[in-house]
Amino acid sequence: MILSGAGAVFVRELKQAWSGGGGVSLPLGFFAGACSLTPLSLGPEADLLRAAGPGVLWIALALSSLLPMERLFQADLEDGTLDAYAGSGVSLEWIVAAKTAAHWVSTGLPLALIAPVLWIMLQGPVSSMFQVAIVSSIGSAAFFFFGAIGAALTAGVRRGGLLITLVALPLYCPAMIFGSAALYGAASGGDWTSPLMLTSAAALFAIACSPFASASALRAAID
Amino acid sequence: MAIMTVFANPHRFMSVSRPFAWIFTVAGVALIGVGVYMGLFLAPADARQGDAARIMFVHVPSAWLSMFAFAFMAGASLVSLVWRHALADVAAKSAAPCGAAFTALCLTTGSIWGYPIWGTWWEWDGRMTSVLILFFIYLGYIALWQAMDTPQKASRAAAVLCLVGAVNLPIIKFSVEWWNTLHQTATFFTGDNNATYGFKAPMYVVALGYLSLFGGLTLFNMRAEILLTRAEMRLQRRLALG
């Protein structure tokens, strides 16, 4: 009963994300735009871009994942969907986990898929495209699940978008450090698997903690 | 459990806390004065750093307090979430500005000391970065309290944020061992005799003074918070009666 309830939420969220309204395409546009502006500010020299590219790509991915967070729980809180969820008999932890997972599948994975293209625009080696996609998909899971805590904490706040940034960015640090280390490893042909494993550890930690913290924060917003 | 419930009553808290707030604050200021005097005039100058090392008497205790204050807030947040203790979230909220101030003091004094000794105002070393992040968590915590409409909602959300942010405390503690780049490792409680007694004593006195001042100011903040809630309730009652 619990799993089918969470599954239904997961499917509903995916359908909503892909049914238009710009939910998915806006963060993708932001990600591409932020990376394309970088050569305009740093200058187009290939060596400089090659040195700065992995770091720029990673911070742009982190900020793109924060962008859609504001509406993650707020929309459902405003129209009463969360109240219905709370009274459905399925624990809020499962619902939050399903919502965040669906959000990651619908937005995080597309971000990870266009990351290799932006990687090449920033003069990254073509041979490491595959690694970039892997690192970005795992790193974005960490960003989305940590970001969900910030989204839940600020769900009841009007214009809480900037507050999410302040709340979630400290949580982003481990994935920030190890994810960009993995990208630099991939760019230089060096060791990229050990920072990738630490990024995965951050993602798993986020997935394990986020539903409990977010559900607890949402309960306060509901009553 | 018994001690916890005794002070769960705001009325009882208000009736006994005022003298303690004054005693802690006055004792804190006095201890800081004594400690600073000992540090500036009685302690020997450092063999290699000369008088520049004296800023450590401000820096190290403020670093301890920045972490102690957050640990205190995390404990209070846990009590507030688990037992719905009436004063725990007021305590956590009241401690936050003091903790943030100690963190800012720690960062600035460290930076001022770093320029002549390390030759740089700032380095992205593990210890410094993690303390900077602690400062941002303090700011986020305070901002979250201010952003919410009702104290009930704010207290739950802030408590969750505080517990999540407490993950940073062990990172700060062990950062100097994990990424040993620039900041020195623990020298105080290791039995290492490089830091002599004359150097350690003022540090302890200042730390005690900070702790006492932290307690006093937090109590004053808590009292102000409770009085504010009462004033608002009275105003609403008057409005309701017309």
Overall description:
The complex is a heterodimer of chains A (223) and B (242). Chain A has one domain (2-222). In chain A, 83% of the residues lie in helices and 0% in strands. Chain A is built from 9 helices and no strands. Chain B is an all-alpha fold and 242 residues long. Chain B has one domain (23-182, 202-241). Helices cover 79% and strands 0% of the residues of chain B. Chain B has helices at residues 2-6, 10-42, 56-83, 88-118, 126-147, 151-165, 168-178, 197-241. In chain B, α3 (56-83) packs across α6 (151-165) and α5 (126-147) runs antiparallel to α7 (168-178). Chain B is globular, with a radius of gyration of 20 Å.
Tags for this entry?
heterodimer, A: 9 helices, elongated, B: mainly alpha
How many beta-strand elements of chain A? 0
Distance between the termini of chain B: 42 Å
Mean pLDDT of chain A: 88
List the secondary-structure elements of chain A in sequence, H or E: HHHHHHHHH
Structural class of chain B: mainly alpha
Range of strand content of chain B: under 5%
What is the count of DSSP helices of chain A, taking H or I runs of 4+ residues?
A: 9
Structural class per helix/strand content of chain A?
A: mainly alpha
Distance between the termini of chain A: 25 Å
Low-confidence stretches of chain B: none
Radius of gyration of chain B: 20 Å
Strand content of chain A: under 5%
Number of helices of chain B: 8
Biggest sheet statistics of chain B: none
User: Biggest interface: chains and residue counts?
Assistant: A-B, 20 and 23 residues
